[in-house]
UniProtKB/TrEMBL annotation:
Family per record: Belongs to the short-chain dehydrogenases/reductases (SDR) family.
SMART domains from the UniProt entry: PKS_KR (SM00822)
Organism: Dankookia rubra
Protein name: SDR family oxidoreductase
Ketoreductase domain boundaries: 8-202
Native organism taxonomy: Bacteria, Pseudomonadati, Pseudomonadota, Alphaproteobacteria, Acetobacterales
TM region(s), chain numbering: none
Length: 275
């Protein structure tokens, strides 16, 4: 049986691990060809190998999504390899929390750059191909829909103490989503966002003894949530637990399939029922 995304070409940033990896696996399972990205070569290449092992077509375009020139390289990877571009999932990111009086300019700009500026640049880099492809398809009397899914957060919807930078960036991505839904509607591009609540990944799970960190451009940044905070958060979720990465990926998939062709400019909150 043919998959719902057979032949579609998808770019998924931050897809070497966690939610992004599961998004890549889900899209590939439905026939998409995937350009995988991770900050580090190891996880990105491992995801590519996993996709190929399941019979999917995949390539890696690893690197820092905030670096100059990355967006153009990312978009070109899909076009140069397979001749097209159908789906963009802007997923890459991390958190770097602090209360406002202790938050540095570096923290502020780093989080806005990865969660808001990078998706803007990727969409900007894709515009020429999307415009030309849409015009050609229209001249042939064909209606072809393309998809952009931007990853937001309940921190961007409701705000979260200690996350002024992250909350602002994730609120901003919703504004960018709504603007681009209107700007690209004429090209038959659905632009939507998914706002995740508590999803259990390396960025949210309780840190090991001594704390957990990630390396961002040579800087070690603490990640993880204290066990007591996790327990409290899960008690407030009507479904009784944090979400799994594959469940998060399923919500992104909904915005990538033909059934969502008449849905655009929306933010879907995926938080287990927690307001």
């Amino acid at each position: 049986m043919a998959g719902k995304l057979d032949g579609k070409i998808a770019l998924v940033s931050g897809s070497g691990r966690g939610i992004g990896r599961q998004i890549a696996l889900k899209l590939a399972s439905e026939g998409a060809r995937v350009v995988v990205n991770d900050l580090d070569d190891g996880p990105g290449n491992e995801t590519v190998a996993e996709l190929r092992a399941m019979g999917a077509e995949a390539i890696a375009c690893n690197g820092d999504v905030t670096q100059d020139g990355f967006a153009e390289r990312f978009v070109a990877a899909g076009i140069d390899t397979w001749g097209g571009l159908d789906i963009i999932v802007n997923n890459a990111g991390y958190t770097w929390d602090n209360v406002i009086q202790k938050m540095t300019d570096e923290q502020w700009h780093a989080i806005l750059n990865v969660h808001l500026t990078a998706p803007f640049r990727i969409m900007r880099a894709a515009q020429r191909f999307i415009r030309e492809a849409a015009r050609q398809e229209a001249s042939e009397g064909r209606e072809v829909f393309r998809k952009v899914v931007n990853i937001s957060s309940t921190s961007g919807v409701f705000g979260n103490a200690g996350q002024a930078n992250y909350s602002t960036a994730k609120a901003g991505i919703q504004g960018l989503t709504r603007a681009m839904a209107k700007e690209w509607g004429r090209y038959k591009v659905n632009v939507n966002a998914v706002a995740f609540g508590l999803i259990m990944t390396r960025l949210t799970e309780a840190p090991a003894h001594g704390g957990a960190t990630i390396d961002i451009s040579g800087r070690e940044i603490a990640v993880g949530v204290r066990p007591e905070v996790l327990q409290t958060a899960e008690k407030l979720i009507p479904l009784g637990r944090g979400g799994r990465p594959e469940e998060a990926a399923g919500s992104v998939y909904l915005f990538c399939i033909p059934e969502s062709n008449y849905v655009t400019g929306q933010t879907l909150v995926v938080a287990g029922g927690r307001p």
